[in-house]
Design brief:
heterodimer, A: about 325 residues, 4-stranded mixed beta sheet, B: 4-stranded antiparallel beta sheet
Chain lengths: ~325, ~90
């Protein structure tokens, strides 16, 4: 997905013929060809001119407004782009079909976390890690038998707690300490990168869901509401460990992130600053544009995995007998 | 996605400016009236449609050369920018 990320503050995006010009004061920070663009993510307080917004609406390029942290405030979409057609099918999914899918998603999330930890285990032996792996195994089979959402969410929560209890052990950079997951606000640097990473990925998924014409507010695992695009939250689960968590481990262990210079402390939490955000986005992009082998032996950028899953979900909505298969690391 | 070489010859200044402005959005200018564009089929079709409205074919000439993977590897560039690659995302 060709995306323009405006992560610096006080930028001004304007239209010049077929090109978007991003200026900060008088300095031109970048130019992007509009016909080749797929979406725009604005982090924090940058402006987009009405002419540019109009051009994006014509071209069905969503403009997403996010906080500097990555929290999504809202999006600009053309009025004609709706999900009214597919939405009917989504609403017709039965409780059983939704539960089966929700289970598959939770299982995939747990399995993928397990694979990530197991790969880490190769580097260092740890009794605790061993135990967590066993617990995750158990939770995967338990999730398969959950007969209602509360129990399923229980297993999912237990799995996440187990996983994050040893995630810190995978960090080899002494500058970064991770004792457990904390969010709203993130309590330390590692949590800050995780939170930002999940938000960015979530927004990309949301855009893909929109592009496929699915209603993001109807989901299987998460409870949708008029404010919560639950389908993006459903589809992110299977990708958390393979995309965000593994990237965070790499960024920290390879000393790409700087504990002193890439973060700021405010409002009782720890956040990425301009420098840190840019670093993360750059690494994220690099990873997403990396080519991976897909099922039929072909090579595609990692973006393709996300698109495939959204399309698979769409297929499932049209034909629920064909169960949704979440992404599994192999 | 394919790499297309688009070359034009347009005598009228006004139309030439419009065509070149449009092509600036889809590719990279490698010579005064030659562009290289890496496009999907739908982007390519869109470019065609939009260009069609700007030219007068009784006077203007435009050529589109799609390059297959086979010949893409054999491109030689003497001077000027390197061969256009698939455009990526931009972080600011």
């Amino acid at each position: 997905m060709r995306t323009l990320y405006v992560s610096q503050q006080n930028c001004y995006v304007s239209l010049q013929k077929e090109t978007l010009i991003v200026k900060q004061g008088e300095i031109v920070q970048g130019q992007v060809q509009l016909p080749l663009l797929e979406q725009i993510l604005i982090f924090g307080k940058s402006q987009v001119s009405t002419q540019a917004i109009r051009a994006c609406l014509w071209r069905e390029i969503p403009i997403v407004y996010l906080s500097r942290m990555g929290y999504c405030y809202g999006r600009i979409l053309p009025i004609g782009r709706g999900y009214r057609q597919l939405c009917r099918y989504q609403q017709q999914l039965t409780q059983v079909e939704r539960l089966i899918t929700a289970r598959a998603i939770v299982q995939a999330k747990l399995k993928n976390s397990r694979v990530l930890l197991r790969r880490q285990r190769r580097r260092q032996e740890s009794e605790l890690l061993e135990k967590v792996l066993q617990n995750l195994d158990r939770l995967v089979s338990q999730a398969a038998t959950a007969d209602n959402w509360d129990r399923l969410m229980g297993f999912e929560g237990a799995g996440a707690a187990q996983y994050f209890s040893v995630f810190g052990e995978c960090l080899t950079n002494p500058e970064f300490v991770f004792m457990g997951r904390s969010r709203r606000p993130p309590g330390n640097a590692v949590n800050a990168i995780l939170s930002f990473g999940y938000q960015v990925l979530w927004n990309h998924l949301l855009a893909l869901i929109e592009l496929q014409g699915l209603d993001p507010y109807y989901a299987c695992l998460h409870e949708g509401s008029e404010r919560h695009a639950a389908l993006a939250s459903d589809l992110i689960e299977e990708f958390r460990a393979p995309i965000v968590d593994s990237l965070v481990l790499w960024l920290v262990n390879k000393n790409v992130m700087d504990a002193q210079n890439d973060f700021e402390y405010r409002d009782g939490g720890c956040y990425l600053n301009d420098l840190g955000r840019k670093k993360y986005l750059k690494a994220f992009l690099q990873r997403m544009e990396e080519e991976v082998q897909i099922d039929d032996g072909e090579k595609q950028p990692r973006w393709h995995l996300l698109t495939t899953q959204v399309k698979a979900y769409k297929q499932f909505v049209y034909n629920p007998a064909q169960i949704y298969q979440p992404y599994l690391i192999r | 996605m394919l790499l297309y070489v688009v070359a034009y010859d347009i005598p009228c200044d006004k139309r030439r400016k419009k065509v070149s402005d449009l092509l600036e959005g889809y590719g990279i200018r490698v010579q005064y009236s030659v562009f290289e564009c890496v496009l999907t089929t739908s982007q390519y079709n869109e470019l065609h449609q939009r260009l069609r409205k700007k030219v007068k074919l009784s006077e203007d000439k435009i050529r589109f050369y799609p390059l297959s993977g086979h010949t893409l590897n054999q491109i030689q560039v003497w001077g000027g920018p390197p061969v256009t690659e698939i455009p990526g995302s931009t972080i600011i």
